[in-house]
Amino acid sequence: QAKAAGRNQVFVYNETLSRAREEELELLSGLRDGLRYGQIIPFYQPRVSAEDGSIIGMEALARWKHPKLGMVPPSTFIPLAEKAGLINQIGTIVLEQAVEQREQWMRNGIDLTISVNLSLRQLCETGFSDVVEACLNRHSCPPERLELELTETLFSESDPLVQENLNRIRALGVRIAIDDFGTGYSNIARLNELAVDCIKIDRSLVSQLPKNEEMVRLVISMCKLMQVTIVAEGIENETVAEWARSHGVQELQGYLYGAPLPAACAEKLARNSNLQFSKIDVDNNRFV
Ligand code: C2E
Ligand code: MG
Ligand code: MG
Ligand code: MG
Questions:
Q1: Ligand 3 being an ion, which residues bring their Cβ within 5 A of it?
Q2: Residues lining ligand 1, judged by CB closer than 6 Å?
Q3: Which residue ranges traverse the bilayer (predicted)?
Q4: Closest Cα partner for 254 from 228, 274, 272, 232?
């Protein structure tokens, strides 16, 4: 009897595994369709000046507008896309749409810096810097109005192609930011060598303020030595915002100033920072 139960358990386990695999394959084929039918779109989250709270930029954050599942978050499809070799395609789509949107906003009288997240794989691609340059040209984007965000995984990367792409992108005048700073294992020497323009302190550090202020002070001192722009991510309340402001953080980002929003909402917010769009119903694209 015990043997039968054991066998049964093994059976259940396999069943679960294959179902997970099946679901992943289904999601993947959906993602391929999604790419084909333009379902990958960026949302935009404001980045504000610590000095006066004005919106100085927008970060493009990928969303998958799935016909049945609704708005699929990047935590679901970005890792899948990385695994399946689709991340470069997604990255290019987001870059193109974001830079085009910036141009549209510019025409509407709003001059913003646009930030786009990169996967390391994009930097491993020959000619990626040409893709960036062509995109800037197509949309008359001044290079300093584009910032590319990279995570610390970059530090362990020794691929010469990565360095070459980075050098070329920097030579164009595009800004480079280190995203999620404080979550990985930073190689300070490498960070200095990369000559980044901006460091974004990760939400996991920011959200614990002021409890962990000693550590964040240290990060800020290091950023000041390196003369990079300091951004705090994940600001959700005024207490944390005030701490950041009074300790030399230059730019703030988080739900307190706005969640990632559809382009039209982001534009309204940029026109009128007093609007509260953080509780927007993003699935239905409703303005709240
Ligand atoms: P990220 O670049 O660090 O983006 C910040 C994430 O934190 C976003 O999640 C944003 O919605 C969330 N966030 C912002 N402010 C707050 C806050 O005050 N509180 C809380 N709890 N969360 C906040 P999202 O949009 O789900 O994106 C997750 C990650 O997916 C991004 O982290 C980025 O690493 C990645 N990602 C998004 N779009 C792209 C893309 O186009 N390409 C690549 N390679 N990665 C992307
Ligand atoms: Mg980012
Ligand atoms: Mg981040
Ligand atoms: Mg983060």
A1: 179-180, 233
A2: 45, 61-62, 73-75, 78, 91, 94, 117-119, 149, 179-180, 203, 234-236, 254-255, 260
A3: none
A4: 232
Q: Which atom of ligand 1 is nearest to the CA of 94?
A: 41
Q: Which of 121, 118, 159, 152 is nearest to 135 (CA)?
A: 118
What pLDDT is recorded for position 183? 85
Atom of ligand 1 nearest to the CA of 118: 44
> Pseudo-torsion of CA 249, 250, 251, 252, nearest 10°?
30
| CA dist., res. 276 & res. 41, Å (int) | 22
Beta bridge partners of 48: 55, 252
Q: Which residue has the least CA distance to atom 23 on ligand 1?
A: 234
pLDDT of 107-140, one tens digit each? 999 999 999 999 999 999 999 999 999 999 999 9
Nearest CA to ligand 1 atom 25: 61
Q: Locate the DSSP E strands across 195-268.
A: 198-201, 229-232, 251-252
Cα of 148 to ligand 2 centre, how many Å? Answer: 9
Q: Work out whether the CA dihedral 124, 116, 191, 111 comes out positive or negative.
A: positive
Atom 2 in ligand 1: residue holding the nearest Cα:
117
Pocket test for ligand 1, best of 31, 44, 61, 154 (most atoms within 8 A of CB): 61
With 0-12 / 13-18 / 19 or more C-beta atoms within 10 angstroms meaning exposed / middle / buried, residue 36 is exposed
Closest CA to 114 of 224, 276, 270: 270
pTM, to two decimals: 0.92
Instruction: Quickly list H helices, 37-118.
Output: 74-84, 87-107
Round to whole Å and give the CA distance between 4 and 7.
Answer: 5
pLDDT digits (tens, 9 = 90+) for 157-178: 778 899 899 999 999 999 999 9
